[in-house]
Amino acid sequence: MVSHKVLEFGDDGYKLPAQARAPRSVRKKRIYEKKIPGDDKMCAIDLLATVAGSLLLESESSVNAGGDKCVVVVQNTVKKEFPAEENPVKVALPYSEDNPYQRSPRLFDNGQCGFSSVITNPNHLLVGDKVEKEVQGFSSLGGSDSCEVRNFSKNLNPGVNGDVKPDIVASIGSNSSTEVGACGNGSPNGSRDDVNLFSRNDDDENFSGYIRPRMNRPVPRIGDRRIRKILASRHWKGDAKPWYCSKRSYYLHHHQRSYPIKKRKYFDSISDSNSDDYRLQGKTRSRTISSMKSRNASFVSRDHRVRLRIKSFRVPELFIEIPETATVGSLKRMVMEAVTTILGDGLRVGLMVQGKKVRDDSKTLLQTGISEENNHLDSLGFCLEPSLETTPQPLSSSYLSEHACDDLTLCHDNALDSSHQPAAPSPADSFGKLGTTDHSRALIPVVSAAMLAPRPPNRKFKRTEQQLAAQRRIRRPFSVTEVEALVQAVEHLGTGRWRDVKVRAFEDADHRTYVDLKDKWKTLVHTARISPQQRRGEPVPQELLDRVLKAHAYWSQHLMHQLQTEPPSSQVEALI
DNA sequence: ATTAGGG
DNA sequence: CCCTAAT
Fold this sequence. Notes:
alpha+beta; Serum Albumin, Chain A, Domain 1; four-stranded antiparallel beta sheet; 10 strands; elongated; DNA-binding
């Protein structure tokens, strides 16, 4: 097995750090960014089967919560303290004497940092400290060996069938008391044995990536974009060779060293694979997804470098309150229906490595740190999140789903926080309850209108520098080749049509947005105006800088003509 | 979704 | 690169 751990640079000469930020969920996919169909989709049925299968009544206990009901804890949990007044449950629930759901058990979320749902008797309303108490009680059951990862964002409509938006973190491995990822630092080593993950070298492929500005080079159009890219890469490989070595050495000597110490760790942990390599992406991604499709799936395929075995997903912490007189069968049914409801709205998979969400689907596993050598398996975690595609429209829906991931991270930080400040709950997202119409049959989400209000910013969980850094897209200096392509495009299109510039010259460079190009042009103009001594980074040929100034001047004069039309080629020629 | 400009 | 305001 050969692992690419040595620093290497693609033909375009720069290294891509491991933690390139994925597009935030908020960010819309760029229109020119093609999606690979079915990529991050999971079959809800599979998930349901999976989760349902792994649903375990790990600790079961009767808690005298008053009346004739008993409470069952479905999973271990570490108690999260939080101020009662911030407990969303305290918000008055739409319950009244004539509430149609009164006669039915209901299930709701207590608003803890993560998922926790309770099925209570009718007429029983948990409020503030009450919930706090019960939670405390449960936590003792779970012991200290487990930190349950949970986050269950619900979007519920008052009084009617609503949407349940689960954000479930699944555990990897068979150690049922160990959670990995989001909240889970409880048992750092617990999952190791249960996650098989190793890499092998693929002889057939090399993983250098190539930025390939299209410039005027026609690319053979084949249906599959990826294929096209592969061809493009190979095509360029030859062209790029001549300057590969010098580029590489340049970056070794200058760029790597010039990186802030803080960031340099990236380099150490990155694999050699360049994230610009399109070839790698489909493979690893689909592998990860598919491996999660079946419970206890084992992957023994030799065709992939990384093999993951995910024993099962785990449902979030789940509290159930049910009358003692209820039958075991009804309890089972209730749990099943609850899970079904949770999963009903469609899910997608989230990946966490060392407590940090990996949002960028285009990152390779190696870049993410998922490799045999540099594995972070201790903190490798998958979670189920509300599927954005399937996400229903109701008001808070988008809000909740957008922040579901953040909550996980926040939970994690809190779990790690020794000071253990009262964990501010996420008032809105974790709050909700499920009711049943006819005696533990269909679960009907119910929610108060207060839930629909946007969640106030949580100051206690201000994003840390690290988090912000992780969010930030990685810096990718423009290569001379790219600059050349950019200059040429601007010469033709002007400085106000960055979208066109993007399509024209950088369509295949997915990491270059038109904003990036615009910004680069801005800096290019600036660079061209300052003395060579003040310039930093890879030197841009003076010839190009001259063209930059020339084009900039030209288009400054011809703003009116910039509408839609290119200047006569003669002028362009003259421009160049 | 794009553009423009400040940070 | 990020973030925003304005289109």
